[in-house]
Amino acid sequence: MKLTILGNNGPYPSAGGACSGYLIEHEDTKILLDCGNGVMSNLLKVCDVEALDAVILSHLHPDHISDLFVLRYTLSEKGRKIPVYAPNNPKEEYERLHYKNAYDIHPIEEHLQFNIGPLSISFCELQHVLQNFGICIEVEGKKFVYTGDMQYDEKIVDFAKDAHVLLIESGVLERDLQNNPPHLSARQACKFGNESNVKKLLLTHFHPKYRIDEFIIETINQYDGLLVMTQLMQTYKI
Ligand SMILES: [Zn+2]
Ligand SMILES: [Zn+2]
Prior knowledge:
single chain, Metallo-beta-lactamase, Chain A
């Protein structure tokens, strides 16, 4: 599998940046995980929209779904309909995703499991202000897990157990935790990386108000494996 970072900011982009969007590719199969603002433009640098086999949304916050509201125009122009998997909560947001013949919308539930091409997809609900599902993708003995947005939730440890790559949100810094934010600090992300025994930990969902080196400083000596601060348009092998 190959992962390309199409957006790694939240809850709004930095100058020239984009919010959550991640392309997973394996042979001819292409899956877009989340579709925040700026993601469609970056996706087009890599592949055509109609090449996508599916879009999976971790949750329905705008920084994870905004570009789905423009991506639909090109799909409907081209007469291509693609499957979109999303939590159906909040109901009004879920209903808003429907558009003519662009999307085939399916609700995500805790124990839902299905295949897209050779890829096996499963989910785990993780604590956030909106219903949010972590997404696990497995193929040929390789395991990739993406958290979506989450605050402290030990369910991630079992769900991401022994993953080759865990793409984990790190939206805030330790000093923000006193305000009980709905996000993980970089240090908490490292803790879960260790407890899950993942081989490579990729941090994402960086708040633009911080410099990346502030996240780096928090993670020094915190994680036992290979730690990566994701970079826009960078590709990582899984
Ligand atoms: Zn977010
Ligand atoms: Zn969120």
